[in-house]
Amino acid sequence: MKALSCAARRPNSKFGEISVTSSPARVRFAPSPTGHLHLGGARTALYNYLLARKTGGKFILRIEDTDQKRFVPGAEQEFMDGLRWLGLHYDEGPDIGGPYGPYRQTERREIYQRHAWQLVEQGHAYPCFCTPERLEQMRSLQMQNKETLHYDGTCRNLPPEEAARRVANGERHVIRFKTPQEGATTAHDLLRGDITIENKNIDDYVILKSDGWPTYHLAAMVDDHLMNITHVFRGSEWLGTFPLHVNILRAFGWQEPTWIHLSIFLKPSGKGKMSKRETAEAMKDGYSIFTKDMGSLGYTPEGVNNWVALMGWGISEGDDVMSLAEMVQKFDITRLTPSPAAINFTKLDHFNGEHIRRMAAPDLAARLKPYFTNAGLEVSDDLLLRVIPLIRERLVTLDDCLPFAAWFFRPQVVPDPKDLVAKNLTAAQSAQIAQRIYETLAPLPHITHDLAEPPMRQLVEELGYSPGQVFGILRVAVTGQSVSPPLFESMELLPREVILERVQQAVELLKNA
RNA sequence: GCCCCCAUCGUCUAGUGGUCCAGGACGGAGCCCUCUCAAGGCUCAAACAGGGGUUCGAGCCCCCUUGGGGGCACCA
To answer: How far is the CA of A219 from the C1' of B63 (A)?
Structure first.
């Protein structure tokens, strides 16, 4: 129903698509296990997930691990963990299987070889015997002559019989795609429209390496086709080889998916992408571009998803704080934007805080508990649950619970005497006030908000100081710190004796100050 | 050097030829609330990169310039 009304309002988007979001989509997130899952990958995965859920389709995880040299042990697991943490559950993947497996490219080697040779037989590709050294020389020569770097075609025109003989003899070779030399190739991107590149600017790319493994160009096209992928979300770094990919698909006679090239994320300054240096700098400020760090930095999957979703997706009006389910409702691939986006970490803080404030108390409590535990504190679930309403709107990140509420779970607090001295007053004056506070609270049967605040206000009146001065002393005495959740609500959660002891302690500290 | 992509407040964006002296959000400034810190409420400052077309009319369409980004591997 939603999709239909969307289509009615924006019938063809600007490039004449027909109802791109209505039928079930099969989409895939296909990382290479060579590093960490970062923001860009998380967004690509998210959009895939949203489209799949929106259309009642399938979200697939495929591991593109054909590069033997760059393989990083544990990376694949990190991607799976990252997706799980984000709540982006896939329907088919290497660890859970599915009808189109295997989902790891290293388990599909024969498939690629078969297809590569099929292209050779059909005249769309050819074996190439040029050595890496020769190619290196060729390139530096081209560089010297200020030519465009490209394969010079030496093996392209080898008689097929000779090529076949040399291959049969076991001569080391790769297979290159035979890009047409005349004309131009036009490929269509949903967001950017037609993209045309002169064929002379498209190289004869290697599609099967001499070690027998395919390159991305072959493997991704073959898999997307065999896995029935309907929409391909990928980074704009693929735009340059986009026509190549379309040519490969056409050589096979396969149908094209809908292509959506997402722009990359720029560093906060907007000048270039995140480098090692900026990544380290962000980490110093408590931010990271890697999902593996997000949890320990106190970020929630809800906050991260929401933040990342809106970099490259404009929702026209209304509430932009959304859960995954709400994003599914509102998602519309035709509203994605093609321009590069600068990362804005303070906006992540905003979304994270918003989602924390939206959480049900028991949920928040469960998420907060590990931060206390990791800090060596023993927390009572009952007390924690009662602390939640006092700190919730103060939290930007989950680990902010420590500065605000750790003191609740410590047997005693030791205020710095300097903090006990009220603004514009001496230690002696503060000591006197503390003593009066003690005398005010001591007679109360319970120190609750309702019972304690009126007499305390009266005391403030009597003393002629400001509420801030008097309450400030009490705050530091009880919590040990000058910034805390609301005072009376906080005291209500502690035993009466504890509070009185602490006020007494403050009196002593001030006297000796 | 060659190829490709992108271009609205500082940032993310809405805008699909008149309803735009350009709307929202983050951040910033101010005020209110107030026991600290927040949260919340209200208000303010802040943009169509430049130049040519097309059109009665252009932020929206076309071209050029400029700026930014990405790519030019037997990596993905």
So the answer is: 40
Q: Is the pLDDT at A19 greater than 80, yes or no?
A: no
* ipTM for the assembly: 0.95
Summarised one tens digit per residue, pLDDT across range A81-112 is 999 999 999 999 999 999 998 999 999 999 99
**Residue A513 confidence class, pLDDT cut points 50, 70, 90:** confident
| ∠ Cα A435 A498 A423 (to 5°) | 40
Q: Report whether pLDDT(A263) > 80.
A: yes
**What is the CA A474 to C1' B41 distance in angstroms?**
30
The mean pLDDT of chain A is 92
From the list A69, A146, A271, A276, the catalytic residue is A276
Which of the nucleotides in strand B have any atom less than 7 Å away from a protein CB atom?
1-8, 10-16, 23-27, 34-40, 61, 68-76
Q: Determine whether the distance from the CB of A489 to the nearest atom of strand B is below 7 Å.
A: yes
SS (H, E, C) A359-418: CCHHHHHHHHHHHHHHCCCCCCHHHHHHHHHHHHHHCCCHHHHHHHHHHHHCCCCCCCHH
The topology (CATH level 3) of A411-513 is Arc Repressor Mutant, subunit A (1.10.10)
Task: Provide the CA A481 to C1' B37 distance, Å, integer.
Answer: 11
Kindly determine whether the C-beta of residue A427 is less than 7 Å away from any atom of nucleic acid strand B: no
Distances (CA, A) of A309 to A30, A91, A333, A398: 18, 21, 12, 21
* Homologous superfamily of A276-360: Glutamyl-trna Synthetase; Domain 2 (1.10.1160.10)
Name the token pair of A75. 């990376």
pLDDT in tens, A455-505: 999 999 999 999 999 999 999 999 999 999 999 999 999 999 999 999 999
Q: Is the CB of A153 under 7 A from strand B?
A: no
The reply to whether the CB atom of residue A357 sits less than 7 A from any atom in nucleic acid chain B is yes
Q: Which nucleotide is nearest to A10 (CA to C1')?
A: B16
Q: Which two tokens stand for residue A317?
A: 């009006």
| All CATH 1.10.1160.10 domain ranges in chain A, comma separated | 276-360
Report residue A272 CA to chain centroid gap.
19
Q: Give catalytic status of residue A267 as yes or no.
A: no
- Written as one letter, the residue type at A69 is K
CATH architecture, range A113-208: Alpha-Beta Complex (3.90)
Residues of chain A with CATH 1.10.10.350: 411-513
A214: which DSSP letter?
Answer: B
pLDDT tier for residue A68 given thresholds of 50, 70 and 90:
confident
CATH number for A361-409: choose from 1.10.10, 3.30.70, 2.30.30, 1.10.8.
1.10.8
